[in-house]
Amino acid sequence: YSMVKHAVREYAQIGVTTAQSGGTTPVMARGLNLMSKLGIVPQRLELFAFDSEFGDTLTNGEFDPADYNSERTRLAAVKLVADGSIQGYTGYLSHPYHVPYHGDADYRGYPAMPREALFKRVEEQHRAGYQLAIHGNGDESIEDIIDSIEAAQQAHPVEDPRMILIHSQMARKDHNARMKPLGITPSFLSAHTYYWGDRHRDIFMGPERAAAMSPAKWAQEYGLVFSSHLDTPVVPMEPLQAVWSQVHRISSGGDVIGEDQRIDVMSALRAVNIDAAWQIFQEDNRGSLEPGKLDDIIVLSGNPLDDPMAMRELKVERTLVGGATIYRRQ
Asked: How many CB atoms neighbour CB 80 within 10 A?
């Protein structure tokens, strides 16, 4: 309870009105649903059902989203994990890591789910009608994910699946080119260019591959709608840092990590607002200020468009969810 209350305060103070749990177990889903109903969690919650925890209930008829949903809580997408992390040397790459892992010059990570198993599970969930959200960091893992969605779409075509490719960290240009026709939408961990960019360049990926990490510009060029997330607690929950990082791509060491992948401020702001809402099929009720939408609003101490370099220093003056103030700066 105390952990949830602390998280609620932290998220309210930095202007989060819809929070997302990226790997939700049945126990977590029931607990968060109850806390939402009791008003302990005022933010709207988007929960991704962790496939490994929910298991066969998702496809054998036992699963009912209504058991976990409430006015402000929604469990819709199913989460799969295809590999690990680049900085953990567990991201699955097509070519070896820049600095060999324990001296193994051929080591390139490994899949968390073998390709055949991934294809099978994606096909099962896709056929069952679920939106899928699949974690993929390394380019070989991303290749497997895209291939699995392509096979699932060929077997069971869905007009608008909006499969979320979570992190998409080392998605190559050819990967971005394939995504839109298959209904894939990337969610970039953009702040990694700040927190991990130097180490990715010097240790894990080398300069050329690191420059193309979290490639929002390529996504833009291929007409993809994408979001930006933080994966807290991997990095702090600071939405304006995510925006700042997509615009500037400056590392904590002060170097630009991939100037060619920078995007404009408005596009980066959309990636944490309306485009993030679109990814979860909620663009009709949130993500922008329009008549008829939910009145979830934050008030900043300044305009991020005025001084893009200083935008992450702005303070949240007030956070409202459903028209009710859940945080006001003193």
From this structure: 24
Residues 36 and 211: their CA atoms lie apart, in Å, by: 41
d(CA 237, CA 15): 10
Find, among 165, 177, 188, the residue nearest to 221 by Cα: 177
- Say whether the peptide bond before residue 181 is cis (omega within 30 degrees of 0): no
CA–CA distance from 259 to each of 129, 171, 205, 224, 249 (Å)? 39, 16, 16, 19, 7
Query: Which amino acid is present at 326?
Result: I
**Could you tell me the pTM of the whole model?**
0.96
Burial 145-176 (b: 16+ CB within 10 A, else e): bbbbbbebbeeeeeeebbbbbbbbbbbbeebb
Which pLDDT score is estimated for 65? 85
Tokens representing residue 315 in the block: 């303070």
Enter the DSSP assignment of 204: I
Query: Is residue 4 a contact partner of residue 38, using CB atoms and an 8 Å limit?
Result: no
By the 8 A CB rule, do 147 and 174 touch?
no
CA–CA separation, 226 and 20 (whole Å): 16
d(C-alpha 43, C-alpha 41), whole Å: 6
Q: Which stretch of DSSP H or E encloses residue 132?
A: strand 132-136
> How many Cα atoms occupy the beta-carbon half-sphere of 144 within 13 Å?
29
Residue 172 identity: R
Rounded Cα gap, residues 112 and 8, in angstroms: 32
* pLDDT tens string 170-205: 999 999 999 999 999 999 999 999 999 999 999 999
43 and 18 Cβ atoms separated by less than 8 Å: yes
What average pLDDT does range 225-229 have in this prediction?
A: 98
Helix, strand and coil content of the chain, in percent to the nearest 5, comes to 40, 20, 45
